[in-house]
Structures are given as structure tokens and as C-alpha cells.
Amino acid sequence: MSTIRFDAIRETFNRKPAEVESKGKRSELFGSNVFNELVMRESLSKEAFKSVMEAIELGSRIDRKLADEIAAAMKNWALSKGATHYTHWFQPLTGSTAEKHDAFFEPVTNAYAVEKFGGDQLVQQEPDASSFPHGGIRNTFEARGYTAWDPTSPAFVYGTTLCIPTVFVSYTGEALDNKVPLLRALQAVDNAATDVAKYFDKNVTKVNATLGWEQEYFLVDKALAGTRPDLVLAGRTLLGHSPAKGQQLDDHYFGSIPDRVLNYMRDLEQECMLLGIPVKTRHNEVAPNQFELAPIFEEANLAVDHNSLLMDVMDKIADKHNFKILFHEKPFAGINGSGKHNNWSLSTNTGVNLLSPGSTPMKNLQFLTFFINTIKAVHDYEELIRASIASATNDHRLGANEAPPAIISVFIGSQLTKVLDELEDVSKGKLSPQEKTDLKLNVVGKIPEILLDNTDRNRTSPFAFTGNKFELRAVGSKSNCAKPMTVLNSIVARQLIDFKKEVDALIAKKELKKDEAIFNVLREYIKASKKIRFEGDGYSEEWEKEAAKRGLSNNKTTPTALKASISDKAVALYESLGVMNPREIHARHEIELEEYVMKVQIEGRVLGDIARNHVIPTAIRYQNTLIENVRGLKEVFGKDFEKHAKEQMDLITAISGHIAEINSMVNKMTDERRSANKIDSAQEKADAYCEKVLPYFEKIRYHCDKLELMVDDELWTLTKYRELLFTR
Ligand code: ADP
Ligand code: MG
């Protein structure tokens, strides 16, 4: 009997929900481990407080002396929260977060020590960063990387460590992380959107991009997960036969949350409250053992930090509750995968959501302006959006018949489609008084009403308008939201800058009124961006054909999709906005290709190992039992034995067949991997892994899964799908 597997199952059956100590009312817990505005107001001098607030709002520099004061206040506050260490917390291009802890403690003599933390330590650090990916940016002569304080994201205490959110840049100031380009893109969209918003309200001085993500994940019992090398090393199952019952009945979705999981969620949510992550909703997802958690939206940089932090916290707390959390986009074949919807909008310092229709025709023209410009931006840069969500793991989800397709399109619902259709007919140049009135009353004026009862939802669209925000639904559950947010905010910034130029030109040249000029430009955008709009079933085959006809990209794999991120168009976009220079762009591309290769390489090795060292030996053990049995039958029945041993002999033959196939395929896969490893060019190597290595996974799996069905359940060493998915 396979003892590890059955021990794990027994252990899982005997588990009780872990205790969760209630720490108090959520409203009181909220943000209590965050060095936020309130704490700063109380602990800083007026001058220091003002300088932090200006750094947050205007990006101004903080004077060195004041930095010392802020550091001292931060240290005292952190010590009062039980912190013993501090760390610069950053997001290297590995996609996760990194930290190196230093103690506050510093001996002065051997009899006397102090807790020390000054402006120098707060503002800048030089982590030993040589092992973080840099894509060639840090050559040996400039090998240093620096982390620098990002005051727009508040410091927090997690466990016993004061964490200071920072950017990570090279000696030459080039981005080595996900945050720097994001901050630059957010600055660009702030500038561009503020300029356009001023058409409608002179009081607008700042526009924040807002992000509300929805995090999907799976929970598997820790003991069960521990029996699967693929889950441990690759975060997904590389083989396993589908259970008799999957998600066909849809009985998990919005069903009651199991107790063990509920306690996990309560524990997690309490920690989120302390850290100031405003989590709000939780529920079961479509697949068994799949769940979702979503916060209230925040300013995009903060929201990205919070999501990165959350994933780390989720992982740690899961362990406490004897779960392993799976963020992989497709942990189980044949079962829904996980995504991370990115809800996005723009919000002014005057408190207006620019993608929310208002109460007057002018407010609605403002809405339409931002709405149509966003659609136009997505139309012009759809391939770049696709590139921003590309990863080896998300490839298993996009276009796999359940998640948004690899084709980017925009869904807006039938009501807004009608509005855009009508706007398309606006006259060129000056508008007649009659037309103006008609637009005001019947087209623009009606928008809030129609949106109110707009329950139009299209779950198959990768980029859907949902009443007062767009929802980018194709983001992978594992990815750092900084990437898609950098692209989305950059392309909208670019678009709004161009829009303003065109409108201003029309006002100057043709002496059109402002609203006439806006209508004129929007009309052309509606026409020009039509092909990106799609209201039908995004998962259907017809859409794939239709999209091809329309000339939309359909980049199904990461190595192909990533090409768009170094296109001339992308380089021009990022350079014109100051988001990234060509060196940064190419470095990132290289890193992403390398990451792709590494992921597939690891999976290939793990699969080879499981197939050879778990599946085949188990199959042989069972086959030997069968052979013994046949031998016995022969002894008992003599030459008549075949009548009684037919099934067994067929099984013996079938098992041999599958073993032979697995062996030969693992050999071929290994050969392909070896030759791919010899390729120098990152692109060609990734292509080789994608086209030559990866296809063997399915073939090997097929034979392994067949063996799983044949072999005596008691002998099978790998925990089965039904056990992973239905034991909790
Ligand atoms: P749904 O029907 O899709 O669940 P919700 O209104 O519950 O819609 O919102 C889903 C997510 O969208 C939440 O994370 C929420 O915070 C976020 N969201 C709502 N409004 C905005 C906005 N203006 N900007 C960014 N995200 C938003
Ligand atoms: Mg949603």
C-alpha cells in the first residue's frame, strides 16, 4: 500500500478547523499596523508632515534632516508595535516580493546598545541584489542596485518587521522592479487625464488611477499537497485523471464555505485589516476548493502593493491552517482556472470617477470622453495588453475554453453600443442648434438612466465595461498587477494626450466650440476603434474566426505574445511618456522569456521524474501482481488457464504499452530540452521550449493517467484529483 498517500489522507480527515483568536472589531483593527497619515500627523512636526504629504501628492523630494525626523518617528512607532527589524520591501522582476531584514538593534559598547534607524536607512539601501533578474542592465562595472523609499505607499509592520515599500533601481537609475515603470505610468496618466478633465472642470488638479483586484485561489490540504512533487515544485498538477465528479454540478459556487476554510479566511481578513488592506468580499468560486477574495478599490500603486503583500500573507496563513494555497492559473486540468480581474478607473482630486456617468449632459460628455478614449487606447495597443498578461502559467488558462480568450476585445453592453452608434452620426464640424439639443437630451442626457438598469454582463470578455469602471479579466491569478496596470495606464495616457492635441487643434483652426470639437474627435475614434468591440461569446470558435477577419491579434503563447512588448510601437509609447527607455524595455523582455523557459524547464524535469520514478515503478508493481496471478491460474487450470486469465493478460499487455510510451516520450522530451538549452537567443530558446518541449507534457500525461485508471488504487502513490479537490 502507498503509505505516504494514505497517511496524508488520514491526516486530512482528522483535521479540525484551526482556532482563530478574535482581535477585535474590524473597523478598529483597520490600518493599525500601518504608518499612515493619521500616525504621521500625530508623531511628526508640522514641517515633516507637510513634506511627506507633498512627496505623496506632488512627488517632491524630502529634505535629509526631515528624513531623519521621519525615520525616528517611524522607528518609535514600529517598536511600539513590537517590531525588532526593518526591511526595504520591493518587487523585483521575479514577480514576487523581496525583503532583507536588518535589526534596529545596534551595540554601542559591549555593555550598551540602542535601537537605531535614521534617515539614511529609511531613504536608500543597497541590498545584495546580484541574484535578482536584471536582463543585462547591471553589468559588472555598474553592478549595484538600490532600493529607495516610495512614500506614496505607507510603511507597515508585519510580524516583527517594519516594512518600507521601495523602488528598486540600478546604479544608473534604470528600473529593476515592477514598481518604477508603474509609478511613471501613473504619473503620465495623471498628467494627461488632468489636462483633459480640465475641459470639464477647472478645479481638477490630479487624477488617480484606481484599481480593485479580485484574487482567485485554490486551497489544498498541506499533507495531501506534500505528496505531489508537481504541486510542491510547479504549483500545478502535471498529471492526474479527472475525478468522476468535477464541477459539472456547479454546487460549489456561492455555496456555503467549509469551516476550515472559513476560519482561514477569518484569520486572513484580520491580518489584512491590521495591514490596511480593505478586503471586503469572500466566496466560493466555480471549481471545487476554489475561492475568491476582493478588496475595496484603491489608488493603483497602493492596490498593487496590497495585492503583492496579500499573496504573501495568504501563503503564510494558509500554512497555519494546514493548507497549501495555489495561485497557479491552472492547477488542475479539466477544472476551472484562477484569474485576477483588474477593475480599473480614473478618479479626480475633486472626487469624481471619470468613468461614471453624471447628472448633467456636460458630466456625461466627460464620461464619454474617457470611456471612448479608453476603448481607442485598447484598440490601438491590444497586443501590448495581451503581452502584459502573458506567462507560462497563464498560457494554460487564456483561450482554454473557460477563461477570456487570448484575443483582446472590449465589451460595453447593448445600451452603450447604441449611444456610440448614435454619436457616430454626429455631423462633421459645427453642430446645428437642433443637433446639439438632440444630443444633450436624447443621447448624452440619457446615459445615467440606461446604466442604472444595465445588468448587461458578459463573462467571456477580457475587457468589459461594468457600469463605472473597466474590468480587465484576463490577468492571471499569480501575476503582479503592476504589469497590466503599467500598460493600461500608459496607453490611456498616450491616447488622452493625442486626444487633447486634436481637440485643441480643432478649436484653434476651425473655431469650433469645445464640446463641438470633442464630439468631432470622439466620432472619429468611435469609427476607428470599432473592430475592438465585441458583444458576443468570447469563448466561441466563431469569435476566433471573426477576430482573425477583423485583424485582431490572437497570440496564444507567451513567447509569441511577448514580441509586442519590444515592437517599435511599444518602444515609442514608453519613450514618449518616460515610462521606460529601450534598455529597460529589452531587459524586461529578456527576463520574461527567461522566466518562461525556466518554468517549462522545471515542469519538464518534474514530469519526467514523476513519470519515471512514481508512475512506472507503481505500474510495474501492479503488473507483477497480475503476472503472479496468471502464473497461479496456469498452475490451477493447466492449459485451460487462458480462459480465466484473459483480462489479466490484456492488462499486462496494456500496462507494458503505456510504460513503453512514457519511457520513449520522456527520452524524447529530455533530448528536446537538451538541444533547447544550447540555444543562445532568448527568443529562440523560448520558442523551442514552447514548440518542442511543451507538447510532450500532454502526451506523457495521457499515458500516466491511463495507468492511474488501471493500477490498483492501493498501490498508487500520487494523491488523486478527487482527494485533492474534495477533501477539506
Ligand atoms: P462585481 O459585480 O464585478 O462583483 P463590484 O462592484 O463588486 O462588481 O466590484 C468588483 C471590484 O471592482 C471590487 O474589487 C471593487 O473594489 C472594484 N471597483 C469598484 N469600483 C471601482 C473603481 N471606480 N475603480 C476601480 N475598481 C473599482
Ligand atoms: Mg469581477
Automatic annotation (TrEMBL):
InterPro entries tied to this protein: Gln-synt_C (IPR040577), Gln_synt_N (IPR008147), Gln_synth/guanido_kin_cat_dom (IPR014746), Gln_synth_cat_dom (IPR008146), Gln_synth_gly_rich_site (IPR027303), GS_Type-3 (IPR052725), GSIII_N (IPR022147)
Domain GS beta-grasp residues, every copy: 84-173
Listed GO MF terms: glutamine synthetase activity
GO biological process, one term: glutamine biosynthetic process
Domain of life according to the entry: Bacteria
Pfam short name (any one): Gln-synt_C-ter
Family as reported in the entry's similarity comment: Belongs to the glutamine synthetase family.
Name of the protein in question: Glutamine synthetase type III
Organism: Robertkochia marina
